[in-house]
């Protein structure tokens, strides 16, 4: 029974936020809520990175005003930062 949940978690489809009642959403979706504390979506983060040319997590957190409360989004922010900058 737990095998399915573990698989979904390891594939990035299920996260802690999903377990606490959030809709399961693909992390690649622009509507994916990356920062639950400030309700910031992946699309908003991608747009900020493209617009400003940010290349490091610390600057992204300061400019986007995310990642400084609970820190739970920093891994996703780093992933998005790398993906957007690798697409250039």
Descriptors:
single chain; Arc Repressor Mutant, subunit A; 5 helices; 51% helix; mainly alpha; two-stranded antiparallel sheet; 6% strand; 88 residues; globular; 2 strands
Give a brief rundown of this model.
The protein is mostly helical and 88 residues long.
Write structural notes for this entry:
- The chain is mainly alpha-helical and 88 residues long.
- It has one domain (2-86): Arc Repressor Mutant, subunit A (Orthogonal Bundle).
- Helices cover 51% and strands 6% of the residues.
- The chain has 5 helices and 2 strands, in the order H-H-E-E-H-H-H.
- The protein has a two-stranded antiparallel sheet with strand order 1-2.
- A hairpin with a 4-residue loop joins strand 1 (33-35) and strand 2.
Spell out the CATH superfamily: BFD-like [2Fe-2S]-binding domain
State the major sheet.
2 strands, antiparallel
Q: How would the global form be characterised?
A: globular
CATH top level is: Mainly Alpha
Helical content class: 40-55%
The succession of helices and strands, N to C, reads: HHEEHHH
User: Hey, roughly how much beta strand do the residues contain?
Assistant: 5-15%
Rg from alpha-carbon coordinates: 13 Å
Class of secondary structure makeup: mainly alpha
How many DSSP E strands?
A: 2
N-end to C-end Cα span: 42 Å
Number of helices: 5
Number of domains: 1
Mean pLDDT: 82
Widest beta sheet: strand line-up: 1-2
Low-confidence stretches: none
Stated plainly, the CATH topology is called Arc Repressor Mutant, subunit A
CATH architecture: Orthogonal Bundle
């Amino acid at each position: 029974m737990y095998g399915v949940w573990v698989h979904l978690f390891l594939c990035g489809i299920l996260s802690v936020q999903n377990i606490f009642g959030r809709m399961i959403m693909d992390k690649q979706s622009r509507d994916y809520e990356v920062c639950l504390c400030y309700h910031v979506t992946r699309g908003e983060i991608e747009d900020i990175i493209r617009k400003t040319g940010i290349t490091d997590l610390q600057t992204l957190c300061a400019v986007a005003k995310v990642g400084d409360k609970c820190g739970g989004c920093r891994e996703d922010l780093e992933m998005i930062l790398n993906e957007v900058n690798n697409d250039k």
